[in-house]
Write a structure and sequence with these properties.
With about 500 residues, this protein is an all-alpha fold. The chain is about 80% helix and about 0% strand.
């Protein structure tokens, strides 16, 4: 029996050798065909996922230049404008962790297609909205679609690109295109509103999403989706508490000035916020498969990275909101002029993201991050000295500092955090950091917008928001040093 097995093995090797000698073109053709098919599949996945990430990040910034037109069209005050921006960010932040779980459970391709279709329909509903409430509801559904898209995009890229170096390049392109989309958002939105109207900033998503769905439909079905016996239960109770905790906190911040900070509604909302956060922490501590693994925060570096990510988004997106309104209301800029005026800030975000890797490789994670938060503080304080009757040129240098700081912080904060967790939990850890960023963005818009609404004239509220941004940035500098210095 053993001799027969050895003979069979020898024969098979001999046949393969003979085939390679007598017909090398056949062997090479099969190998080339396989490589070509694999490369085609990777390009298809990368094209589809880049389209989705572009549209997701485009909608985080494109709406800012439409705020003044929305306030006129619907006769909406500051709180309504905050909800238009935050409804999207709030649902995005609340469901981002669950989106990754659903991708593992039902297959990344299926959940990705569902998220892209939902985002497209919600964008169409935004464009056709006849009231502020309809627009806010549609923006919330957009956020749900985005929360399904982003984690499943990364899973599709990972599955299609097994080689680590090729995967790193693919993710770099994915992130780079998203950064360009975020930077171009105000300019694209301003141009669309200039040529058409505010509804066009939502209509533009429809053909982009359709293109992404056509490409994603041609992606092969997931082979690694969990079977029914392997599926971990979805933490629905933790999800509900997370949405309630973050949603009521944002709601209290937005509506506090309008309804009165001591009104029964606001006081009740504050109580619900505290109870929801306490319940979330309790549930995530005892749940076998928590949506938010609290064990990650036991490491000081990870906690510091999460705080830095949240603080950076809090400052940047809060400032993007109030500076956009400053250009539109205090300076009476058109949407197109506002988009052009914001370019120094948004373009530097993309530039900072591209430079962050080299900066961290040369100087480490400590000094560049401290310098970035120092740039935030300097930029915010610098804008505080620029009044509406001064030439626009005085605002360029502070906006460059703010944009560069935002671009540098996220990559430098992410790398050391992921080094503190096992490879098997890297996806969950990255999702937690992304959730921290989106939550920070929602809180920044809510807080800074409330300062604008509470203080008059507009310049007083703007200066208070800028002072708060500088304070948060200055506080983060020693906190980051303390968190990262022992590990560094």
């Amino acid at each position: 029996m053993r001799a027969h097995r050895e003979l069979s093995l020898t024969d098979s090797v001999g046949i393969e050798h003979a085939t390679s000698v007598l017909a090398p073109d056949i062997v090479n053709t099969h190998g080339a065909d396989a490589d070509d098919a694999s490369n085609t599949a990777r390009r298809r996945v990368l094209a589809a996922t880049c389209i989705s990430y572009v549209v997701v990040l485009l909608d985080t910034s494109i709406v800012n230049v439409a705020l003044e037109r929305l306030s006129v069209a619907f006769d909406v005050q500051m709180a309504g404008l905050q909800w238009v921006v935050n409804a999207y960010t709030l649902m995005f932040a609340s469901l981002l962790l669950t989106g990754g779980t659903l991708g593992d459970r039902w297959g990344a391709r299926r959940v990705y297609l569902a998220g892209l279709g939902l985002f497209m329909l919600a964008s169409l509903a935004c464009a056709l909205a006849g009231s502020t409430d309809m627009l806010i509801a549609a923006r919330a559904v957009q956020g749900i679609g985005a929360a399904l898209l982003v984690p499943c995009s990364l899973k599709l890229i990972r599955d299609a690109t097994p080689d680590p170096q090729a995967r790193a390049r693919a993710i770099g392109r994915w992130v780079g295109l998203g950064g360009i989309a975020m930077a171009a958002g105000p300019l694209v939105g301003g141009a669309l509103i200039h040529w058409f109207d505010w509804r066009s900033v939502f209509f533009v998503n429809v053909p982009i999403c359709l293109a992404g769905m056509v490409l994603a439909w041609r992606i092969a079905e997931d082979r690694g989706a969990a079977t029914s016996g392997q599926r971990a239960p979805v933490d629905l109770l933790g999800l509900a508490c997370g949405i309630a905790a973050l949603g009521t906190l944002v709601g209290v911040l937005i509506e506090g000035h309008t309804l009165g900070w001591t009104s029964p509604v606001i006081v009740s909302g504050a109580v619900v916020t505290c109870l929801a956060w306490a319940a979330l922490l309790r549930i995530e501590t005892v749940h076998a498969h928590p949506m938010l693994p609290l064990g990650l925060f036991r490491h000081g570096v990870f906690s510091g990275s999460a705080c830095a990510s949240m603080a950076s988004a809090f400052v940047f997106y809060g400032l993007l909101f109030v500076v956009s309104l400053h250009f539109q209301q205090a300076r009476s800029y058109s949407p197109l002029q506002t988009g052009v005026a914001l370019l120094p800030m948004t373009v530097m975000v993309a530039a900072g993201s591209l430079l962050a890797g080299r900066i961290a490789a040369r100087f480490g994670p400590v000094r560049p991050m401290i310098a970035a938060f120092g740039g935030y503080a300097a930029g915010a304080l610098g804008l505080g000295f620029v009044t509406s009757d001064m030439p626009y040129g005085f605002a360029i240098l502070p906006m460059l500092a703010i944009g560069l700081a935002s671009g540098v912080v996220s990559p430098i904060a992410t790398a050391p955090a992921l080094e503190t967790v096992p490879a098997a939990r890297a996806g969950v850890a990255a999702a937690v950091l992304n959730t921290a960023r989106q939550a920070g963005a929602a809180l920044g818009v809510a807080t800074f917008g409330s300062l604008l609404a509470a203080l008059h004239p507009f310049e007083a509220g703007l200066r208070a928001a800028l002072a708060l941004a500088a304070l948060v940035s200055l506080v983060m500098m020693p906190l980051w040093w303390r968190a990262i210095r022992p590990a560094a």
